[in-house]
Amino acid sequence: MRKKDTMSFFPQPPSSTAGQVTASLRQDHDIIKKVLKATDACIKLLKEGKEIPPAILLDTVDFITNFIDRCHHAKEEQGLFPALEATGMPRENSVIGTMLREYEEARKIAEHIKNAVESHIQDKSEESRSKIIQYCEAYVNHIDRHILKEDTRLFIITERRLKGKENDVKKMVDSVEIEKVGGAEGRKQYEENADRFLSSVRQLGSSNN
Ligand SMILES: [Fe+2]
């Protein structure tokens, strides 16, 4: 299970001085954190032997695949990183290279989650249930640590390096968001889904007690 007290060991990111680009990416992180919280609650229920409705499991897979990877990681990979590289920041041996390797790792774990969920919806077996638990735990841990690194390191570097260029980079990041989820409206939809996901799982936990 991820360590919830790790935040206290890191400096808090600036909020009022955050650039436009990092503000958008930090908002995505807030949405993602809600889904990690809901996934954590799902893991707890599954460990207690409870069943999670297929619709909730499929929504989790959809969020991980389409919002976290296809949209948010692409905003960083295709919008932010080229702008940082243009300031002279190398791709290898830098935080960019580390983040790219972590995206790859996240994609691999997400694929395992998708397969385990599909199997479990079909067979309801203990094996597929424990695979969902195993890979969801790995995913929550991985993304939790990844987001922390971005909030406390990558975005601080970004705010320094892209000073005065925020408008142009924000346009690039926004264009990736439009292409992947249809822009602000699409993102709002995912935010509402995250809220619904969290409250559904909490309700499930209290009704199962
Ligand atoms: Fe991120």
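^ fe (ii) ion complex. Residues 25, 29, 72, 76, 147, 150 surround fe (ii) ion (CB under 6 Å). DSSP finds six helices and no strands in the chain.
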